[in-house]
Structures are given as C-alpha cells and as structure tokens.
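Figure-free illustration: sequence to structure, shown twice.
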Amino acid sequence: MGKIRIGIFGFGKTGKVVANEFLQDSLFTLVWVVRKGDTDHQKYASRLLGHEFDAGEIFSADDIDDSFFRERPVDALVDFSDSTGVYLYAKAAQAGIPIISAISQYEQEELEILKSYAEFAPVLYSPNITLGINVLMVAAQILQKIAPHADIEIVEEHFKGKKEVSGTAKRIANVLSLNVEEHLNSIRVGGIVGRHEIIFGMPNQTIRLSHESISRAAFGQGAIFAVNFLIGKSPGMYTMETIIAEMFRQNIPVY
C-alpha cells in the first residue's frame, strides 16, 4: 500500500509544526501546503523545516483554481489556516477528498459551508484536535452522568500573550451545560503552552481531570489520528469526540 498523500492549508506557527509531524511519519507524504500570502512561494515545506528532501511544495491561496486539486491529488486535506480557508476547497470536497478542519472558531456561515461539504466527502471538524483534550471532554461527560450533583469548575491556563478566553474551555463548558461566566476560570502565566482542568467537587472527595499541551506537535499527532480514521469513511460530518466516545464504548472493561 502506498503512502497517504496529504495537503495542508496553513503554514503559521501551528501549521509548520503539523506539517513537520506528517513529514516525519513514514505512513504519509506531504504533497503541498497552501498559505495566504506568497511568502516562500513554490519552495518546499520540508526544506524550510530543516529536512534534506523535497516535499510539501508551497502555494498561495491565489493558486487555487478549478484544476488545482485534480492536478495535485491528495488522499486527505488538513486545514490549520483560519476560518476563511473553508472557501478554498469546495472542489476538493466535491471530488470526495476527506477534509479535517482544526479551525478554532467559524462564523455561522462558514460552518454551514463546511457542513455542506459533508454531502460529498467525509468531513471531520474539531476546534481542538489534540487526542488528549477530546478524551478529557468525553471522560468529563461520563463523570457528570455518574455524579450529576457534583460542583464543576473549569480552569484554563495559557501563555501570557493569549488575551481571549480559551475556545476549548468554552467548548468544555458547553458540552457540560455550564455557564461560562460562572464556571470558567482563566490564568495567564509564562511558560505554559496550554492546560485545561475540570474539577468535580463532591462531599469528602474531589476528582480532577486535566490535559496539558507540552508542544504544538500534539495538534499534528491529533491530525494524524484523524486522517487515519477518516480515510475510507463515507461522506458525513465527524468529530473527534464521537470517535473517542465510540472507542470508550468498545473498550469498557468487563468484570
């Protein structure tokens, strides 16, 4: 079986790390990278990331035309650009190419466009595609059902430069039906990439579920996990949470 061919949208701080994870995995070949501007146009992502081979030719958004995806075929498309990237790969979706979107937040119109692609191709959307954070969210929902009267608080810690409240923390609050203003606590200190903790307070005991991103490479590993799952799937919308939840169901220990 040949390698899985990957196309990536986005080559910022996270996009570069994600591209590098695919470059280092022997199961994949990085065919191209699309970025907004024409910086490093038609150079190779592999060379820019320190590798001694050519892979991941860099194109600008202006290079995307009706023939782009036909002339440069890939087996899956991974989007780490921004919310407007969804306008660029309609032709890929219509051709049935699996799409993995890791955009943190879409406007409603953009989200509807992404959902429309699921008529033609398998589409996986996860605002935080790290494996750990999705395991955390599924585990938290299970625990909430087991202990519905527990007090729950969410703590999100990030680097000093992050001004906005974590979108992932808001998502956790949403899946647990918690008011963001009342139950979400933010901390900004140096040296932290990103950490989320869910605290369940019960009489005489406390349960803490936590996840910490040590490196942006965790996003690349999550994207690799998502691609491996999505290849060969039928058209439709998928999420990391539903995948993890199904794995929980299949692996519950029997005593």
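We now fold a second protein in the same way, so the two outputs can be compared directly.
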Amino acid sequence: MNKPLLQFTGKGIYCSAAKVYLDPWKPVDRAIISHGHADHSRYGHKKYITHHHNVPIIKHRLGDITVTGKEWGETFLINNVKFSLHPAGHIIGSSQIRVEHQGEVWVFTGDYKTEDDGISTPYEVVKCHTFITECTFGLPAFKWTPQQEVFKDINNWWASNRDDGKTSVLFGYSLGKAQRLLKYLDTDIGKIYTHGAIENMTEVLRPLVHFPPTTLITKDTKKDELSGNMVLAPPSAHGSPWIRKMVPFVTGSASGWMAFRGARRRRTMDRGFVLSDHCDFQQLLDSIKSTGAEKIICTHGYTDLFARYLRELGYDARTEQTQYEGELSELNSQETEEGNLKLLTER
C-alpha cells in the first residue's frame, strides 16, 4: 500500500517523498514553515523555507537561522515533489502549503482566515484532493461580526475612556493581532503607546505595511503622558507590575474567545471585542467547499465535533493530533471546558 503524500508523525507533518516536514514541532533537517507564530515556527531546524514576508519575522523570533524565502505561487521542487506557497490571510506572511506529487495534490493551511484584514495578503482558494484544515473555532456558535464594525466599537470605547480621563489598555498577541489593531486605531482620538514586545515586532513589519506612529513605553514614561491615550500590550502583560503605570486605566481584549459568555469576566477584562485571526464556523465550511477536496483532515481546535459534522455533509473527514494551538493558549483549560459546554447548549 502506498504511503499517503503527507503523514502525521511524532516530529510533525512529513512528506516522505521529499524528506521534508511542514511546520514541525521537533527539530528536523528541512522544514517548510506556514507562518511566524511560535507553535508553527520553532527553533532548531537546520534549514527553513517560508514566504519572504515571513523571513524577517522568524529571524526576529528565532535568531541566526538558515532560511530561504519564496514568492506566492512560486513552484519549487524537492526530490521531484512540487511545493508552492499561497496566501492564508491569517497574519502577515502566512501561507498555505500546496504539495503535488504523481497527480495528487494536498494543501496544508496552517492557520487561516478568509476575511481581508487589510494588512495580510488575502486568503486564496487552492484546489486540491486533500485539505488539512485547522478548526480552532469549528462550532456553529462562532460567527464573526465584520471587522469594520468591531473597530468602530473599539474606537468609540477609546474615545469614551479618554473623556473619562482614563488610559485604554488593549490586549492582543504581539504578532498579528496587535498590528491589525494598530492599523485601524483612530489617531484623532489620541496617541498610541506600546509594550516592548509589540513595538519590536511592529518595527520588523513596518517595511511591509503602513502603520500609525507609536511610542514605546519605557521606565521614563510618565503616568500623565498615558492618560486618555491607547496602550497596546500582549496578554502576558495583564496583571503584571508593568501595567501599574497606567492607573487609572480600563482594559479590553481582542480575541475570538470573547464570544464565550464569561470569558471577559474570568480574565478580569472590562471589555471584550470579538476579533479573531481565524475563520469562524461558516467560513471554515465555505473554504473547504471551495477547494473541491473530498478528503479533509482536521487539526487543532474542535477537531472531533467538526470532523463529525463534515462527515454528515458527505466528506471523507478525519482528525489528526498536532502540537499547534491556534488561539487556544489564550484560555486556561477550565475556562475552555466551561465555554465548550455553553456553546454546545446554545446550538
């Protein structure tokens, strides 16, 4: 029996015909990387291949590595296996990885979203026979509001806090979410200050995207300077001594998990904004249908439930275990479990 074109192994997703791994989570000789988040681009591989927009990102994160950048749609051969990278729309430089060999085509999505965020290259449909999809938000209860409405709410929230003489502290991942927020903040309201992790990553990305000006918060930043303005910070800064400089402040979080009832309260946030860099349930279904694939492999997220739903629709769908997290690391296990139960009872 012939081996499948891509196999799920203890090191990662492996193409034995090319002797190359896709987003491996253990050190390997050659890795094709979908994007720069830590669960997909790990340290220790001998050679990295990725989209050229992702090269400065993973060099910033991983240091001195051997990496080759590719263009969108550029075909490259490894042991007569054809590979190409196609926009995933997840964050800047994020790719779907197309693999073709002996007339068979597989697509590994990594993480992806179909809504054009205005900073990432928009998602591209890639036809294939087998489609490997995340399902971070693979439940019917997840349905995103268009981002222009979310950003209107965020800017109105900021303006209200300014009028009350309070600093707005908005939390989002330092790579991807923070830049998406920054792109659409209204600088007519005030200045934008940043935590060092966000400032450093944004500086890496400024050559690729026009962002509003930001000011790094340092030990010399005075509390009065921050009053009425916006502070962008990673989730790890919440509850840390660093945030005391902001008093009086109001906190907000931008995440798909803000769709959970009680998630904001458990994380002691004053305001939650439902904004994700992943597909919602219907977007996942639409993406799968548009590929024309008959075989679907579900990874990281609501894998069992989503695969079962796909089988009911007539797909040959199964699940595979990976070490990718999507946005799952934003929640602790108890909150995730409680949220699952609520979502399932609301279906």
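Summary for the second example: The chain has two domains: 7-142+277-346, 147-273.
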